[in-house]
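Q: Entry one of two.
A:
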Amino acid sequence: MSVDLNQMAKESVKDIRFWILLFFLVRLIGITSPPVETWHSWRQTVVNMTARNYHETGIDLMHPRVDIAGDLTGITGMEFPIYNACIAVMMNVFGEAHWYGRLLNLIAASFGIWFFYRLIRDHVDERTAFLAAMILLGSLWFSMSRKIIPDIFACSLIFIGIERCIGYIKGNLSAFWMLLGIALCSIGVLIKLSVGCWMILLPLSYFLPGSNRTRWWTLNVQSLGLLTIISFLMGEDRARMGFISYRNYTGIKLRKDLHFKIIR
């Protein structure tokens, strides 16, 4: 049985999964490099710092801890540290290393692109979905998705969650996927509040052709319940008292002050 390699190659370049894999492999180059880029180096260091403290002292999501608070405990207000905790789990399993956050972010971002593509393909058309995914792959997403910061990680969870939830509303998926989708969206918003703007797609799905009204109400009522929990958890973080401002020096003064809200 002969195989037409040219035909296979032509079909591959039309498949978004080929490009997701290619971009994934390209970004594996230097994946173990330390976070010393001039852009977001301090932010990546803080994420790793919190993750290492979780690895050494145990994971406490309500009390993330940094090492730059002098004689204070270092407990700090920050994004809900689920991403940091995931890095700590990898440290617990594979041993301490500084690059786990890069790999974790890159894997999540690759899945996020796939579900972003599916979301557009199912509600617009395949060509538009392919072009949109390629634009996103080559955008700021390309560099940010291998940094040790939670932004792209959170956005990817939102894409996956919304795609699952809308699939449920249209009757294509079971309640299990709906609950998983709501959970992923909730975690994404907790990690990075700004990605919550994508959640507007859930109430707007009421107007999609084929939308099941009963399923739509079921989804959105449960989403409101989870938003209440999110508000409580974020309120707990904001209610911490005794915030101080920390100015970082590394031989010379940095261009900006690094503000960390430290308590106790």
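Q: Entry two of two.
A:
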Amino acid sequence: MILVGVSHLRTTHSYSGTLSLREFKEFLIERNIDFALITERSDFIEQEDGERFIKECHNLSDSQITLIPGFEVTYRDAHVLMIGTSHFVKAGSNSAENLLKWKKYAELVVWAHPHRNKYLLYDALKNVIDGIEIWNSQYDGKRAPRMKVLNSLQGLRARGANTLTYASIDFHREEQIISPNIVLEGPNKLQDIIAKLKAGEFVLKNSTVTINAKGKIIKGILPLMKFQSFYSIALISMFKNMSAFIAKLRLLVPGNLRRTTRKKL
């Protein structure tokens, strides 16, 4: 059975989510998504709420979709996705020790959007991560991965690291298109999906690009991917800077224009 999944999602359990978990489930089913790696922001969630979110993911999972609970945690200036968590760790010190506490309860650990902390792979991160998010459509666009991260991962693997590639949509709003996807083959059950993700038995893809878990380009034209990556990152950066400037001026941008722009990027 071919399963299509998405990663790095957020619901109203986090301060920036716009859909409840139940609404999100229906939203994803309508778009033929089979599994979702949901990573709520841990810094504004209390212990009881975190445990309730984990339980809700399990209760809402069914034959149509598997909702895999997780949390996005911080270490120094880096963000880390703790996926398939069995328990919530109350936000404590921003320390290596806290990372290890999370690692104890997480099935899969992924370094998110490395460019945001200037690609600094701290020793504490290196000791816990299973993979790196080479493609985050919120910052890199929907057409191609961030080539600098992909090249860095390939370099790590060449030096003997067993680090895998992951992709995400970093979902906050309904207008974000569900791409890139994580595609694998197997039963639509949490433990089976996690096992495939840990073993690297999956690919990352959109309509024109396919990359395997080791960072090898299976489908796609490299020069075109580099161009798409460059201009997507530039346009997204420009859009974010313009939005911040307009917000400072307290001007209103029509909602339809904002949503259309996000869909295109």
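A: Comment on entry two: The domain at 2-264 is CATH 3.20.20.140 (TIM Barrel). The chain has a mean pLDDT of 90.
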